């Protein structure tokens, strides 16, 4: 769960634009699913539709960090300069392969 206070940049803007800006990795269908399931609160009140925000509103988003922020990958960097990045590739059986 994430708590965010609305600043003047998003005063009067829609909840959708605020969430899209704050969490660019969140897919639109997940946002609307969260609205349908009332997994988003504004000032402690669950909302089920895209509403306009006001300066100082507190938004609580009950969506997993993996969906909000995207999946993180830990890379084993061997070498890096301005033009080249070399990493250790995991063994084939450790990679997620699609059939």
What does this structure look like?
With 99 residues, this protein is an alpha+beta fold. It has a domain at 2-69: RNA-binding S4 domain (Structural Genomics Hypothetical 15.5 Kd Protein In mrcA-pckA Intergenic Region, Chain A), CATH 3.10.290. Helix content is 22%, strand content 22%. The chain contains three helices and six strands. The protein has a four-stranded antiparallel β-sheet with strand order 1-4-2-3, with no helix packed on it. It has a two-stranded antiparallel sheet with strand order 5-6. The longest helix is centred in the first third of the chain and has 9 residues, at 28-36. The chain is elongated. The model has no long low-confidence stretch (mean pLDDT 84).
Describe the structure in brief.
The chain is an alpha+beta fold and 99 residues long. The chain contains three helices and six strands.
Secondary structure topology:
Blueprint: E1 2-5, H1 15-22, H2 28-36, E2 40-42, E3 45-46, E4 58-61, H3 65-69, E5 76-80, E6 85-88
Antiparallel strand pairs: 1-4, 2-3, 2-4, 5-6
